[in-house]
Each structure stands twice: as structure tokens, then as C-alpha cells.
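dumping this here so i dont lose it
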């Protein structure tokens, strides 16, 4: 039996807008929150101790994090090196440069030869010796459809057809790895992807239009004892045989994750079986206070009562209230700020309700420089009734706004036929994807 700690989607350096500067350290308090949560995960790995740590991808918000963020990340994972706990770092979509064409931020750990560290930036099988025996890990980093979209065979195809084409190529490449497995060893698939049965979190805004959806049946192979996933920020178990698990992110990225538990999983894996435990983390709460004042004769009292009835101590808070223009003078802004002072940070958003004044989002007002996609994301985040359509609307918007650069090189590349793929090593197969 081999004990694993599986965590994912650290996104160290995210959410600065929800924090403030700590005068003692000079760091943003949200950065400190993320480091604290990561430290809890490493603490558990060392105290247990576990035999192996699997990281499911997305270490940072992008592939070029500031030096201080890289240092804080490395300091935590260095503790695993000192404890002689082998670790697999998988490359996620946020870790890649230029959609995978320019390397990945995590590859520095392979270049430096960090003892016990494996970087999964390609489809490959890694045999790892742990305290409790050997295990084999198949790494499957984030794949995009962008390379296929520039090729002649995709001309005239719908997005669904392109997804089917890329899924077929993935099946062939994955089969090449499966045929080389040692059937006597426990086997884990570590992948950063979106499955067709996953429930979305904030990542529907972070990566929509860039990747493709992988059918769950591609992952639920009997040769896998555990399937460790990354990318989706909401913890969920997608299948029992084998166990297919998203641990979720370790901190809340934004208010779309307000109600989600954050944590990691500890898994006991053996050939033919796996058992897991979800371990919640003590993350900072997010609180939304929504109040409709438009029908109130005393909007100030209603607003203060709504704040007082919400547990806001040390939380990230947003107050959203609907009000008629003629009620604005009845609201004492100083008193509202005082009532919210117990929060860690807070924002106030007033939406006007009037036949003459349309509701507007402050984020979309004058003086901002948002791209069309960012503007649409902001709008959708503030329209709960559109939540079920949000991902599809963003997907369509990305397609409508596709630039000529995305289609550059049409006719320059040609995919080999499937028979040739079957004859090549798995690494070459994925490279061609």
C-alpha cells in the first residue's frame, strides 16, 4: 500500500485584489493566505508521512510569476526534498508559455536536477521508488486544440468534430503508454484536463476556449488504480472504479468559489484498489451580501441590518445593493464603511434600479481598459441567472474574436496517419498533438 498526497491548482500569486499589504512583511495578505494553505498541505505530507506527493498543475496564475512568488513556492516544496518525499509536478494550462510552445515555469526543477522531483510536461510513464515500494505514474499535461486548429484537416469542421479528432489522437497516444505498463505495480494517471462530467468552478472563466473536454471513459481504464486530476477548482469524485478525483484548488480564487470547500486528498493506493480522504483547509471566507433596497422606505437601516446579520470578521466581503436614484441621499456611506470595517477587505457595488437609469457594473465604467472577453467575464460574474450559459457564451465569444494569428500556418503542418502514430514512442505521439 502506497500513501499519496494529491493537491492541485495552487495558483500562488492570485487574488491580490482581494487582499491588502501586510505592513510587517510587505506582502499582499492574499499571497500569504495561499502560502499558508500550501504549507498546511506540506505539513500533512511530512507529518504522515506520505510516500509520494502528486501536484496536478497550475502552480501560478501564469507562466512568468514574480521572483518572490517563485521563491515562496520553491521554499514549501523544498521541505519535501528535505523529508525525502518524491514529488511529481504536472504542467497545467497556467504553467505553459504560449499555449505549450515555449516550455513551462515548472521545468526549472528538472533543469536544476532537484532530487526526487519529476516534472510532467509531456505524456510519459515514470517509475518511482517510494519508502513503501515502486509505483508508476503516467503524466498527462494540459493539451490545447490550437495546434490542430491550424491544420488543413480541421478546415470546415465544427468544434465538436475538432474535439473528436483530438480525443482520438489522445486515445492513441495514451494507449501507447498503457501497453508499456508493468502490470505488477500500482498505476496512477496524473492529468490536467477538463472532463465531460466535471462541475465547473472559476476555471470556466480562466481557460474557456483554450482547451478541450476529455470524455470520462478515456480515463476510467481498468489498468489505472487511481486517476489524479487537476484544473477544476471544485473538489469532486467523478468515478469509483477506478477512483477519479479532482482535489480542487487550495484557496478561493474569486467569489465564484465562495461556497466551495478547499483542500487536498490523501490516497492509499495498491494494485487493484484505492481509498481516499478529502482534507479541508482552513481558508479565508468570502461573503456576498445582496440587498434589494428599491422598495424600502428606510434603505439605510435595511442595509446596516443586512451587514450586521452576516459574519464578516476577517472575511473578503462584497456588498451589492439595488437602489433607486432618489434613495441615494438616504444612504450614509461613512456608516456603511464603518459597518464593514471588521472585514479583511470589502467592496461596495450599488446597482441603480430605475426606468431612466439602467443598472451598470462599476467594473465596466469609463476609465477601464478591458478586453472584450474580460468585459464579458465581468458581466457574467454579476449575472447569476446566466451561470448555466456562461461557459457556452464565453466559448462562442472566443471563436468570434479569433485572430488571424490563431489560424497562421494553415497548410504548413501535416499530421501523420494513425498507423504511424501507433508505431512511435508515446512521447513523440504527444509532441505531435
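and the seq i came up w/
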Amino acid at each position: 500500500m502506497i500513501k499519496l498526497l494529491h493537491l492541485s491548482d495552487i495558483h500562488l500569486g492570485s487574488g491580490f485584489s482581494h487582499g491588502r499589504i501586510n505592513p510587517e512583511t510587505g506582502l499582499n495578505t492574499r499571497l500569504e493566505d495561499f502560502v499558508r494553505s500550501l504549507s498546511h498541505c506540506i505539513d500533512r505530507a511530512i507529518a504522515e508521512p506520505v510516500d509520494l506527493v502528486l501536484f496536478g498543475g497550475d502552480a501560478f496564475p501564469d507562466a512568468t510569476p514574480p521572483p518572490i512568488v517563485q521563491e515562496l513556492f520553491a521554499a514549501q516544496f523544498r521541505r519535501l526534498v528535505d523529508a525525502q518525499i518524491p514529488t511529481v509536478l504536472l504542467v497545467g494550462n497556467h504553467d505553459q508559455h504560449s499555449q505549450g510552445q515555449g516550455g513551462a515555469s515548472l521545468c526549472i526543477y528538472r533543469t536544476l536536477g532537484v532530487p526526487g522531483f519529476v516534472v510532467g510536461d509531456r505524456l510519459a510513464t515514470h517509475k518511482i521508488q517510494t519508502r513503501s515500494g515502486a509505483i508508476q505514474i503516467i503524466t498527462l499535461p494540459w493539451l490545447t486544440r490550437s495546434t490542430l486548429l491550424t491544420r488543413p484537416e480541421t478546415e470546415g469542421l465544427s468544434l465538436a468534430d475538432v474535439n473528436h479528432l483530438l480525443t482520438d489522437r489522445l486515445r492513441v497516444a495514451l494507449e501507447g503508454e498503457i501497453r508499456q505498463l508493468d502490470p505488477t505495480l500500482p498505476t496512477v494517471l496524473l492529468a490536467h484536463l477538463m472532463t465531460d462530467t466535471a462541475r465547473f468552478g472559476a476555471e470556466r472563466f480562466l481557460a474557456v476556449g483554450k482547451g478541450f473536454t476529455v470524455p470520462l471513459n478515456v480515463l476510467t481504464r481498468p489498468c489505472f488504480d487511481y486517476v489524479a486530476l487537476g484544473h477544476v477548482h471544485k473538489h469532486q469524485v467523478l468515478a469509483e472504479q477506478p477512483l477519479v478525483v479532482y482535489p480542487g484548488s487550495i484557496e478561493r480564487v474569486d467569489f465564484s468559489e465562495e461556497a466551495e470547500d478547499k483542500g487536498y486528498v490523501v490516497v492509499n493506493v495498491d494494485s487493484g484498489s484505492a481509498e481516499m480522504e478529502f482534507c479541508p483547509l482552513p481558508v479565508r471566507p468570502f461573503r456576498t451580501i445582496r440587498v434589494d433596497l428599491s422598495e424600502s422606505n428606510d434603505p439605510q437601516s435595511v442595509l446596516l441590518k443586512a451587514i450586521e446579520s452576516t459574519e464578516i470578521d476577517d472575511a473578503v466581503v462584497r456588498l451589492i445593493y439595488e437602489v433607486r436614484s432618489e434613495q441615494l441621499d438616504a444612504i450614509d456611506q461613512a456608516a456603511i464603511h464603518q459597518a464593514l470595517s471588521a472585514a479583511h477587505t470589502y467592496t461596495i457595488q450599488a446597482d441603480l434600479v430605475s426606468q431612466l437609469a439602467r443598472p451598470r457594473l462599476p467594473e465596466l465604467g469609463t476609465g477601464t481598459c478591458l478586453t472584450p472577453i474580460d468585459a464579458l467575464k465581468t458581466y457574467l460574474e454579476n449575472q447569476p441567472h446566466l451561470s448555466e450559459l456562461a461557459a457556452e457564451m464565453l466559448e462562442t465569444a472566443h471563436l468570434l474574436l479569433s485572430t488571424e494569428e490563431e489560424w497562421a500556418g494553415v497548410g504548413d503542418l501535416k499530421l501523420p496517419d494513425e498507423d504511424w502514430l501507433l508505431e512511435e514512442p508515446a512521447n513523440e505521439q504527444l509532441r505531435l498533438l
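Residues 316 and 352 are 24 Å apart (CA to CA).
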